[in-house]
């Protein structure tokens, strides 16, 4: 038998793929205290919850719950009714959503009282879901001894499927782009809540993540999660001073080392990278900002350098720019105002840089 011609294997490609259902979950809980006192209110009188905001795929939805203690019309008079109403939503939204309303029973169970199966929200209807309950049933099962009634609204957005296709040639493992596959797999983990064990709450938007990855990439997350801090115990991290689109790219970098929309978000990403001690991302941001240095934006970039003392590369670039363009910068109408807005330390450094040049 003739030996196999190994070169012929180069034309053989085995294709495989993986599909993940992507979804985003949200839950809002409304606690009504001294609930028995609501019963005295007339039919048609309602109490509204605070408006709550839900983000999905950067689309903003606003909702509220309306409570009618004695119904809202003749048919429901004497019954407690609850309406879930949409306050606002994206124009012509076609996102698929599952909605469920539950009551917390006195034995600690969430009892479903109304649900909306998977579907697209009709733009003509503001009242999305309703239910009615008798007061006898409420007293027996749902009103706690302290007089509280707890209503919860759960939403699941079906964001379709995520597909990953891999072409694996049989030549040798070294010819297969393992690094790209690893990045794709990590990005798939980021976009899927499967096996996630920590939530990041950012201005009303919830991000699912994995403690081991956050801790491995950021010393700040490591300190939060391995200590006795609230974040580590509750597996919930509330993030302030960062917008959801910035956090999405920050997490993309943590998981994959890549960033999208870098030019648009560079200043905010630099601040976030500094906050979470992501040095490589910070240096990338510094380089982009340094390339954009001009007379028109030098004042804003000076403020960035003043706020973030770790930005040594950007600091040097700004000082070199000032040394070469000192007269033009000093001629700006708001030059005095710019100097007053900076710290004394930075003003001294700027002065030295210009004087050494001259």
Automatic annotation (TrEMBL):
SMART domains assigned to the protein according to its UniProt record, in alphabetical order: BTB
Boundaries of every MATH domain copy: 25-155
Provenance organism: Trichomalopsis sarcophagae
BTB domain span: 196-263
Source organism, top-level taxon: Eukaryota
Any one GO biological process: protein catabolic process
Protein name (record): BTB domain-containing protein
């Amino acid at each position: 038998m003739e030996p196999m011609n190994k070169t012929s294997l180069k034309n053989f490609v085995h294709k495989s793929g993986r599909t993940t259902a992507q979804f985003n979950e949200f839950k809002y809980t409304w606690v009504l205290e001294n609930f028995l006192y609501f019963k005295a209110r007339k039919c048609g009188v309602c109490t509204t919850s605070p408006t709550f905001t839900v983000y999905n795929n950067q689309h903003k939805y606003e909702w509220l719950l309306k409570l009618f203690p004695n119904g809202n019309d003749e048919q429901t008079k004497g019954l407690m009714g609850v309406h879930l109403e949409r306050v606002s939503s994206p124009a012509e939204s076609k996102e698929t959503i599952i909605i469920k309303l539950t009551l917390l029973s006195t034995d600690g169970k969430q009892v479903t009282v109304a649900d909306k199966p998977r579907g697209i929200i009709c733009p003509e209807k503001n009242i999305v879901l309703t239910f009615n309950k008798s007061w006898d049933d409420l007293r027996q099962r749902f009103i706690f001894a302290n007089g509280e009634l707890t209503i919860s609204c759960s939403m699941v957005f079906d964001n379709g499927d995520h597909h990953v296709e891999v072409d694996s040639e049989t030549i040798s493992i070294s010819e297969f782009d393992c690094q790209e596959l690893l990045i794709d797999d990590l990005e798939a983990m980021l976009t899927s809540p499967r096996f996630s064990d920590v939530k990041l709450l950012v201005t009303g938007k919830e991000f699912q993540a994995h403690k081991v990855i956050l801790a491995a990439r950021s010393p700040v997350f490591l300190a939060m999660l391995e200590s006795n801090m609230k974040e580590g115990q509750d597996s919930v991290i509330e993030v302030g001073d960062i917008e959801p689109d910035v956090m999405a790219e920050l997490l993309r970098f943590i998981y994959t080392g890549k960033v999208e929309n870098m030019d648009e978000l560079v200043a905010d990403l630099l601040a976030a990278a500094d906050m979470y001690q992501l040095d490589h991302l910070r240096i990338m941001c510094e380089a982009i900002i340094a390339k954009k240095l001009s007379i028109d934006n030098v004042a804003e970039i000076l403020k960035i350098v003043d706020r973030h003392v770790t930005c040594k590369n950007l600091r040097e670039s700004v000082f070199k720019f000032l040394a070469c363009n000192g007269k033009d910068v000093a001629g700006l109408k708001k030059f005095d105002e710019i100097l007053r807005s900076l710290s004394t330390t930075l003003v001294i450094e700027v002065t030295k840089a210009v004087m050494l040049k001259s």
